[in-house]
Amino acid sequence: MADKFVVTPWEVSGRIDYGKLVKEFGLTPLEGLPKAFTDNLLFRRKKVFAHRDFQKILAAIKERKPFVMMTGLMPTGKFHIGHAVVARQMAFYQSLGAKLYIAVADIEAFHARGQTLEESRRVAMEEYLPSYIALGLKPENCEVYFQSARSADAGRANAYYRLQNMLAKHATFSEFKAVYGEISPGKMVAALLQAADMLHPQLPEFGGPVPVVVPVGTDQDPHLRLARDLAARTKAYRFTTLASTYHVFVPGLGGGKMSSSDERSCIALTDDAKTVKMKVNKYAFSGGKDTVEAHRKHGGDPDVDVAYQYLTFFEEDDKKLKRYYDDYKSGKLLSGELKAILIAKLNAFLAEHQKRREAARKRLHEYLAAPEEFTPKQKH
Amino acid sequence: MADKFVVTPWEVSGRIDYGKLVKEFGLTPLEGLPKAFTDNLLFRRKKVFAHRDFQKILAAIKERKPFVMMTGLMPTGKFHIGHAVVARQMAFYQSLGAKLYIAVADIEAFHARGQTLEESRRVAMEEYLPSYIALGLKPENCEVYFQSARSADAGRANAYYRLQNMLAKHATFSEFKAVYGEISPGKMVAALLQAADMLHPQLPEFGGPVPVVVPVGTDQDPHLRLARDLAARTKAYRFTTLASTYHVFVPGLGGGKMSSSDERSCIALTDDAKTVKMKVNKYAFSGGKDTVEAHRKHGGDPDVDVAYQYLTFFEEDDKKLKRYYDDYKSGKLLSGELKAILIAKLNAFLAEHQKRREAARKRLHEYLAAPEEFTPKQKH
To answer: In the 8-state DSSP scheme, what is residue A149?
Structure first.
């Protein structure tokens, strides 16, 4: 893989040097976290590796004060193991006492992808929400909402869209271009709505100023910066500065960022055991040598091996993981054997997940900020 | 006055040739109206002189089917006799069975004039609404709302702002520039919200497709065209094409368009009798001759005389008005005498109006789509 890499909201490519990104974006490495965090695989293994203003969140947790975790989902394609990284953080922050706001970005999908609101609703309700719930999301202190129908509470609905409209005051066209590459009226309103998504948990109608953390992939940092900048300029609201954390990308089977629209890149949480076996064996980029003899002699490279990378997300046991690493590097463990370990691990996880997912389907309504009757009354 | 004139949303100047405007804008002259209309001074005297697609409205009235009159107000400055032209149409359409939607453009005032939402609310509640009510607006079938807090009904609030967001899809930056001269993100969201103001009465949440008429001054036609164009392109909604009517400008005391920010231009509906007398005598542009002798000999020009123009709005009796016209033209009626007639007429009207206006203050809540508790919870 090349040393050159690109990480922007509209392109992620090359082999990403996260250390370099931290410096370029002016992020702070996540270090010295309390035990509750290091008990979690994602923080312990630096899958979540950097932040902005995260100390506010740590202080709130320590002092048992309210805080919010806000995130959004683009309701397109299949729910894959990359999406699970955010979903696991949802359940984790909830266990620490966070209130959760989860935006289904249907207005953004409409403008950026030309997807109807109805299709966005279907994808969110059939693909995303059941998986979130199966991955541990609880209905208490949690609001899932659609950008196109924020709330069944009129005061809250008005306040959310009012904020979107007010935020436009201090924005410039060139800022939007810097974040989005190209800009149209539709993309601009979607960008403002996304900023409102991140900031509205602090409106008085939603409980007033409060520390909010938005966990994102590094490619999303320009969106965070825009929301932070707009908040700082909007003096009428006294926003606590947004906190954010940055997680690594789960690589696609062939490397790069996992893409839900490419079967050869992603493992969906709905894939069956046979499909997972086929995909891992056929498409997973291997760090092993071309022949068994060469592998035994020189060993493989776990750092580029996609099967090993996936195990770092799914094998909870640090000791086991280290053994896989060492054995693969020494040549003791063959590429096919490593893949077989991953396949077994993934399929055990998916079998359990899919059972939970079916049960979750009946509970979607417990999570929604606005019930069915608030959805659009015509085809969009 | 010069023959050159300009009528755009951001400039109205020169002596306006309404016939030329009708041709240039592609409007249709209002002709052959039924008696209910010609009984009304504004229609009989061609103060409302042209339209687009008004036949839909006439048909609805004839067939006693539902129709809507939608209008907005910019909550700045004082309520003056120019504003009364729209207010009188409100009461008139209500008497014909229309449902009324009246938008207080506080988001637009925020972006275009830098005015806070609180100040907009104050101006609307203290200046505009009491005058509308005093001029005959009934609470039945009437919704006054603020753009920043559309409704106390969550389904309606969500639907209104959803429409604003959806309309952006089919808009281009150059269209906004054509309507607004210059454009910023703030002005753009305000423009989209204005289009939503005109179109949202047709959403299913508000009763579904229905003929809607928007009465405007000719300078506002670009806004109408933008809303019509966006509606036509937004296939998900089946909008009945917007109808509009066009009324003449009430001239300012010195000519031109009446401006509420210029004391020498406007007569406010809160002005006392002494102020009205002073303003008319001092500032009203006269079509009379310089000396009594010259006036008696050559006569005055009622067509440019502002006092006479005002009488065409306030003297209901066609015969009396014709006599003023003829006598002024022949020189029998002097400029000072004509002004005295107007002053008496205006002051009688204002005395009655101001009494009604005070009574109206107690009834504002009967007209509002969202009560006080839905207003913004912080200073904007």
So the answer is: B
